[in-house]
Amino acid sequence: MPSDKKQRKKKDAPPGQAACEAPSTLPKCRQPSMPKMELSPLSKMPAGFDKDDFLFSKLYKSVVVVGGQTINEVLQIIFRQRAGENISTYTLNKLITQIKLSKKKTNSVTNKIPSKLLEEKLLAIKIDVTGGIFLLQKVFYDEYKKLSSHCQTQIQTFRELRNSLSHNYPLTHQDFEPHHEKLKYLLEKNEDIGILQNEIQELVEKKKTNADKELDQIEKYIDEKKKELYVIIEIEKLKIILKDILENVATEFKEDLTQCKDKIDKSLTDISQAKVEQYDQNTYNSEVQRYKDDPVHELITKAREELREQYRRLRVANPCPWMVTDQAENSSLDNFYIDRIYTPLKIEGPGTEVFTEKLLVAGNDLGEETAMSSALVVSGLAGSGKSSLCLYLLHHWAEGTDEIKTLKDYNMVIFVEMRTIKSNSLEEYLKTQRMKKSTAGISSDDIVQRLNDLKLLFIVDGYDEAKKSSRQMVEEIFAKFPEQRILLTTRGEFCNEVKKSARRHHMAYLTIEICGFDESRIQEFTEKVFKVVRNYSYYAQNQACSVRACANFLDYVQGRAKILEKLLELPLTLALMIYMWIDCPAILNRVTTATSLYYELFCLYQKKLNDRLKDPCSDKTLESLMLLVGKKAWELLVQEESILSKQDEKEIEEECINKGCPKEELMSAFLVYECYDTDSECNYDYSFMHKTQMEYLSAYFLVEESENGSLYNAQEQFHGSGFHQVIIFVVGHFARKKIIEQNLKDIFVLLDNADIDSLDYNFWWRLLTESLKNEAFLKEICTNRLPCSEWKLSEKHVVSGLQLLITSPVYTVKNLIIEINDVDPYDVKDLLSIMETLKIKFKNRYTKNNPILTELFFWHHFQRKCNKPSDYFLRALYPWGHLTNFVGSVGEQKEGFEVLRYCFNVKNLRVRLDTCDAEVCLANSLKRIGKGIKNLRVMLALDPSECDADSLVCLPNNKFTGSLELTLPNMTDENKKWIVKVVEKLAGGTSYGCSRIMFEKSTLSVCTVLYLMMELRDMVHEKLTVESIHELTLQEQIELEKQMKSTHMEVNWID
């Protein structure tokens, strides 16, 4: 594209010239005034040219061609550094071999760099931008890390700019705000920007005064000018990026790159100023076609549209298809679109809640946009909403919304539904099941390499539902796409398996847990579901009736359904209960467990099926058919399959003929199907709606046929963690039939084979609930399955564990440890209310004379200032629990009513104090209980400006002679005298003293620490630990060491 040196006629801008409308935040350039603009045909260009393509070709040539020249120049410098005089004889492969890369990086090179290029001589290598930056960052890492952090950031920015090209085709303008001072300067110098700003402003003014018929044309003009402006700005930005890279490389490797920088700058300027002429057509067509023929572009544009089309078909999220097929003509699947009924789930990560909209920017601090782990492992119970979350993400990517932060930045989102995998390899899956049309011309060998050039998000749903051979695909994704983002969902029992796989491939991962719905989300979801079913049945004629039915259901949830609270937290079971309520509210009166819920649901299925049949079947016939479906569900689970084979379909069809029930009606009542085309015909794959349905029906079959030995014959199949939910339903069915005691032996053989963790209190409580708390069953669990004398409960298990402890007829527990790390104990639902009932529940079992020795570790209360101290939990221990170890916070109490006053068995205390009065209360307690305390660690989280040190009292006394450690957070140099006085008061001066002091998150200088060492030398027996933002110099280290010798006090400095 030759540069047009002719400049448009310019004059000085008149005073008070208005700023252009967009982008409004650009720096004010010299604003040439323009002759009054007359509207003319849009895109007035020579024949055969398209304005958008022309502008985009400028951007493409700048990034890919000129940017590629820059990256290749940098690589040649590194090649010379590495190969020296032998550069003319070295191939790229030989040079890389000498580096001795890890196996992971070697695999990455194989996937990323074409084999032909690896055998090229170094001097002849011309590599594209993506491959070149990959070599810099991953292969020649020793050279790359020598570059400044700013240069590394610019290289990464350039990589993202290259990857975003296909997002910008067809070209769309974007408002732009220049934060970089260099860029502001360049934009101010660029006269073309001033001209375009003027033209846009004139068009904006013209739009205000013109008739409606011209508005569309003016809008198109404005859009066209904004696109021109956008391209110029992007090229100016690229100038800075490439210049910064070359300057730092020249400095670091002592190379003269002046000519190269000038050449790059001139090339970009020529491209930016280029105007198209008729004689340019061949060149122009060649540039545009070069981009369109780029395999990366072709893959993105074709595959992205193919994927979006698939994901739009996945919008329907209805766990009860018969609710649609059985209702009036007003019914529509559209009502069940995921974006209409999806309700944000409660998702917990380390230390905080994760909000759905920030899911993809979750780092190790979750909620902060910090370094993100490559793999995000999302665990949750069956029916907790894992698949719905995946569908929700797919919907928003397909529609290009901003609802999920950073989601639309991914070139492609590749959905892997584990239970539907039919392929033997990842490449085969991509080419035949996910991107069949768009990868038809791409070989299996090339597809991974091409996809790795893009920014990808893999969404892998249902790891627990896949057969072992399909799980190998996750290994392939980890191995072949180590730099891409992966979100994987699974039930909790498979979490460790996934994490081991990630570690095998050196992939950083983060695990978060879906906890379903809390009370407010239950109401929100209920209202949404009722809203989408208003077209059905009598709701179609009476909207008020629908609103009333919703209110009645919510009243039921708050009242009679309280016993089902854990089930209501699961979106799947809540949806099923809503649907059953809509059909017949009385049904739910019979629901007390998960098994009874599904039992009533499938009874309703059978009723609906019979209502549709011209010749209704007897109940016995329908039950026998349902048993056959249950048998098939069990066989599929054992085989780790989810789709019925043709032989299965044939067997069902033959039974249907024998029983006089149409096969299609039976299949549609219990199964869903997916249609796929072959060369000759249209075929159907039948599968169950979700795995929980398969597990319920499998248990139904095993229990109903148990008299025929089905359960005995199946015992060997229960090895491993894949059948936990089946066992729960088996117990539920035995309880429903009131024959659980007759089958205890078989049940516990299943439990032994399934390798259930004795510390999984949640599982044991769910199992007990499904048994309807059968006494014989309960006694066996508590006697032989649960720990005997010591129970350790985390925030995940504490509520279930305490419920088991309350229910247990066995009184052998002597030690109870409750450790809650990342959450406020008050936020653990039902924990405080259950603990406060223990005084009554444990009456005559655990008492003052026969207590449980209890340890409470409330780390959240110790490390952070919370709304309430731990006092209520401490009071709840009386009289059944005797405290032996405690970590948490203590508040203010009246003298004589201190929460620790009667804790005579406590050995170790780690206490946070947020007020002066709380410190006085602790001191009063120590006068009574101090004798037995070995270690007392106090976090004194006081504000020196608000706390008078004279109001504090001494903690050690004649009874307390143990070790005292003090932590004073957020101290500054201004607080040094206050610190001395506080330590003197709390530690009792030289009479008692303390062993250690920790200054956490301080800004203390070395000078202040030297002062403190002198003032506290007779009160601190061992050491000071200083966590400060101040970094020690060599001279300061020497001064500290000298002071340590004179005061006999050790100082540990952490910066």
Automatic annotation (TrEMBL):
Residues in a coiled coil are: 186-228
- Output the SUPFAM superfamilies linked to this UniProt entry: P-loop containing nucleoside triphosphate hydrolases
Q: Which UniProt keywords apply?
A: Coiled coil
Signal peptide range in chain numbering: none
Region described as Disordered: spans on this chain: 1-38
- Give residue spans, biased composition: Basic residues: 1-11
Record-annotated NACHT domain positions: 374-491
Does Coiled coil show up as a keyword for this record?
A: yes
| InterPro entries in the cross-refs | NACHT_NTPase (IPR007111), P-loop_NTPase (IPR027417)
Protein name, as recorded: NACHT, LRR and PYD domains-containing protein 12
State the organism named in the record: Portunus trituberculatus (Swimming crab)
What does the record give as the organism's lineage? Eukaryota, Metazoa, Ecdysozoa, Arthropoda, Crustacea
Q: Which gene encodes it?
A: NLRP12
